[in-house]
Specification:
With about 140 residues, the chain is mainly alpha-helical. It is built from 4 helices and no strands. The model has no long low-confidence stretch (mean pLDDT about 85).
């Protein structure tokens, strides 16, 4: 495996984190590099830098990946439950909607932040810093 480029980290900053710790720390809302500082300053807004190690999060843009992964996970949980309920119980449509729409919404809200944290951890591990956006992707 090729290590991430050093350009993703500030000068004198910590080395790129290993993959599994970066994913787990990010999913827990902690700095993927050191595990000490907070990753988020709002519900989904990353902090500009880690207060413990100084790793910068301001330019790391996860964009559409966390909602896509969250939708993928929620769909793979809710749809089989809906199919089993329809096959075994055959409830009316309003009961299906009353049960599974809130379930899908709550699962989505519960998963989006850990998925975004894990995505930022993965991007930090891979050295994706957002500098490629400024240079036109080249």
């Amino acid at each position: 495996m090729v290590p991430p480029p050093a350009s993703a980290f500030p000068a004198g900053g910590p080395p790129p984190p290993p993959l599994l710790p970066a994913l787990l720390r990010g999913a827990g809302g902690r700095c993927p590099s050191c595990g000490q500082g907070r990753l988020f300053r709002g519900f989904l807004r990353p902090a500009p830098i880690c207060s413990a190690c100084g790793t910068g999060f301001a330019r790391i843009r996860s964009d559409d990946a966390p909602p896509y992964v969250t939708l993928f996970i929620v769909g793979h949980v809710v749809v089989p439950l809906m199919l089993m309920a329809e096959r075994d119980l055959a409830p009316p449509l309003w009961q299906m909607a009353a049960l599974f729409l809130p379930l899908a919404a709550l699962l989505s809200l519960a998963l989006i932040r850990p998925v975004k944290g894990a995505t930022i951890g993965l991007m930090l591990h891979l050295g994706i810093s957002g500098d490629d956006q400024a240079s036109g992707g080249a």
